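Possible regression after last week's pipeline update?

I re-ran a chain I had predicted before the update to compare outputs. Posting the input and the new output here so someone can diff against the archived version. Not blocking, just want to make sure nothing changed silently.
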Amino acid sequence: MKIFLNDSVYVQKNDIGYLSHTDRAIPASIYTKVFSSGITIINDSNRYEFVKFSEPSEIEFFEQLDLIVNYDDYKDLSKEEIIDAGNKINEERNNIAEIFNAMSDEEKERNMNLYTKCDELEFKVLSIRDILWYKEGQLKLKMPRKRNKVLNFKKSNK
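New output (post-update):
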């Protein structure tokens, strides 16, 4: 899940971990922020933690990455609307899986992008499920908050 706030994007470690196991090119600054302190193991104790990215190139990378669910797209939806959105994505995944599974082994080798797409859609559905669980109180998340702007007034010379 990603959340855009205050000229930054906050992304869960779970998503970064998933990205690191794909063929997608990850900007070095993103990889460094998450994995630079030595061995970073992403597991149930930290998978839902958010990492802040504020470099313009990082924000642009995550803006263009449809694989990671944007919380703002779902936060105001009802339970039924969230479930419907997840079901549509799952239906797309199942259609692609049927096509892929009907292929010969040689065709499958030439069309591994379909296998990858199915995997990514499944990951997206699980992220949508997490948003639903969060909204229902079944999943506790420490969500990033908007920073209150501090107003400074200049003294009048009058």
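Follow-up from reviewer: compared with the archived run. The mean pLDDT is 89. Marking as no regression found.
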